[in-house]
Amino acid sequence: MKRKITLITGDGIGLEIMHAAANIIDKATNNIQWEEVSAGYTAYEKFGELLPEETIKSIERNKIAFKGPITTPVGKGFRSINVLLRQRFNLYCNLRPVKSFEGVNCLYKNLDLVIIRENSEDLYKGIEHMITDAAAESIKIITRGASERIADFAFKTAEKEKRGKVTLTHKANIMKLTDGLFLESGQKISQNYPHINFEDVIVDAMSMKLVMNPYDYEVIVAPNLYGDILSDMAAGLVGGLGMAPSANIGEDIAIFEPVHGSAPDIAGKNIANPTAAILSGIMMLKYIGEETAAIKIEDALKIVLKNNNLHTKDIGGRLSTTEFKEEIIKLL
Ligand code: NAI
What atom in ligand 1 is closest to the CA of residue 276? Predict the structure, then answer.
């Protein structure tokens, strides 16, 4: 029987890149049946709702979703649907590999690290209010449970991927209670993994070090906000947001999505790079045990990326989204 997966194309370039990635997956395996539902502006236009109940039910039923970017207005309007989904399904871990590919012009060749971002709390709880007209307050929540859980996930990932070091980043010198608790939790969990090195680095220094010598890092674990910022920055080390995949993982539900947003500046032009979506699809296939299909796609993608005549515009090439997809499909 085919495995049903919820497909949410999302907004902006989502429609272009997610269908490209789904087409590629269908070429590599017959075992997937997509259940396409919507969220974001696209859903609002169709159903008058940003996150229709049908979408939630589909994710609950299928347990796995392949999701495109969703537009979130800055400073006003609805809360991020992404944050809502992560909180609703308790997707406590955001896994973001940072890997350079041969042939892609980037700052660091042969880079391969992973950023693990706590996904359920911190300032992303969205507890904000105006105190007076001239003062606003946002509440940062850090709990021992979530911090120990994410630290454990980081060490388990290091074990699984045979990586030798976990680096925890924080700002506990200033936020002694919240970030202090995050650090203390990591230190405690590290004792269960004596065979894996553990260090902590203050987040501002971490940013500088990550830009200057990213090869020093293997697994970085961070609270929500720092993890978000560092992982976008790290995407810049390996060719930009078009190259950065991610997984949001919970106890029994997982959502796979590119790190980038809906890119309204290039939406509808068929020039977006679908690599981040394809790489997220590869992570998803591995997660559900479709290892063979995942490796087939990975190999084809590597061959296409190696040839700089076959690149999309963001990484210096001329191919459209569709042409890039077709090059991969040819190899499958
Ligand atoms: P963005 O990631 O959409 O775009 C930043 C820059 O990178 C733009 O110049 C864009 O053209 C380029 N870019 C992004 N993905 C690309 C791709 N696949 N191929 C080629 N170029 C690409 O970030 P921005 O502009 O800050 O956000 C736009 C919207 O997306 C906002 O509403 C934001 O809230 C939302 N967003 C949604 C996310 C999600 O659904 N997971 C994540 C990040 C942002």
Answer: 18
| pLDDT (tens digit per residue) in 54-74 | 999 999 999 999 999 998 766
Task: Specify whether the CB–CB gap between 218 and 166 falls below 8 A.
Answer: yes
pLDDT at 212: 97
Residues in the chain where the model's pLDDT stays below 50: none
Parent domain of 217: 107-238
Looking at the fold, whether 111 and 186 belong to one and the same domain comes out as yes
CA distance 195 to 260: 35
CA pair distance 259, 250, nearest whole angstrom? 17
Ligand 1 pocket residue status of 86, Cβ below 6 Å: no
pTM above 0.85, yes or no: yes
Q: Is 101 within the bounds of a domain?
A: no
Predicted local distance difference test score (pLDDT) of residue 48: 87
Domain count, the chain: 2
Mutate to test the pocket of ligand 1, among 84, 224, 246, 262 (most ligand atoms within 8 A of CB): 262
| pLDDT value for 75 | 58
**Ligand 1 center from residue 271 Cα (angstroms):** 13
Residues 186 and 121 reside in one and the same domain: yes
Distance CA 298, CA 99 (A): 13
